[in-house]
Amino acid sequence: MEIDHIHFYVKDATAQRDWFVNCLGFEAIASFTHSETHTELIQSGLVRFALSSPLSVASPVAEYLDRHPPGVADIAFAVQDLASCLDQAAVAGAKVLQPIQENPLSFNPLKWAKIAGWGELSHTLIQRCPPGDATKTGRIYTEIYPFWTEEYNENSIYDQGNFLPAPNPLGNSLYLNIDHFVLNVEKGDLKPALTWYETILGFKGQQTFDIQTERSGLHSQVMIYPNSLIQFPINEPTSNTSQVQEFLELNRGPGIQHIALKTTDILRTIAQLRENGVSFIDVPSTYYATLRQRLGFDEESAEWQEIQRKKILVDWHLETPDSLLLQTFTQPIFEQPTFFFEVIERREGAAGFGEGNFQALFEAIEREQLKRAKQHSA
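RE: above sequence
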């Protein structure tokens, strides 16, 4: 199993596409209208997003946005045996939202189904048999995204769609793939959520984290899928003032808090994003003063100075000082401060999630939370 794509529900898909293209450096690859919904498809490297907005109150996107702010509605997984995976999920208690559908195009056989995930998140399960060749026709068509209609309708996709030449995933993209995503759940729901993903989809628990400040805290456990690149922490708040609790209140329930985009050169990527107008969290100078006390920190290095200027968080282990994990986080991208992106680089096989940065990150997000509270009360 791997991440196939992630589907956002937004107020204006076209405007959101332009922001992803102009600010985050994605490429627009297709757009189409079906029924009461308009969808824009974008890609960078192997990161594939769909952005859907309602055209009327009858759209399922409108129904979702009545209950939640814009954000991630579906995380789609590519699976090898869809029938077996769906049967296992159903037997374990998953709610099947859409039974198996099939794309009849002979050059690219494709099957998919959808199950309800945690909260109002859903998971589309996709089987390619064999993997399609998007370059065969020079068009995306349904190679990546054939699943927006309740019933597959070949004519609606071709007649109403606007398809652009497929981007080269190995080209000069800012991102390689999705490194991880983070799910926030209600206090007391961490263990049930972990159990759900274990029994329904076969995920396994990995490391745990506990973060505590004078004001708030969270408890987190990382989930992985064996022999795959998928990994995602699940967070629950440990106080009513936690930034996780703020997310839950503003999102009106559990949901995806952020997605980490993996890059091979975070200094170049952040420089480009800042030039494009993307705003990032602030990192205080005290963070780097603390780093200077760790073995392996070379204050005279030009790269270390550049890391500090660009306010990038860094983590490493004494046993493997060259295995650097570098990361930073955007400000929330929607009107409500619920969803943001992480940009991450892993050098020399660096693993984990920047455990040494968790406290600094949590405190940085907490500072932004306090700023919003002051602005609201002013």
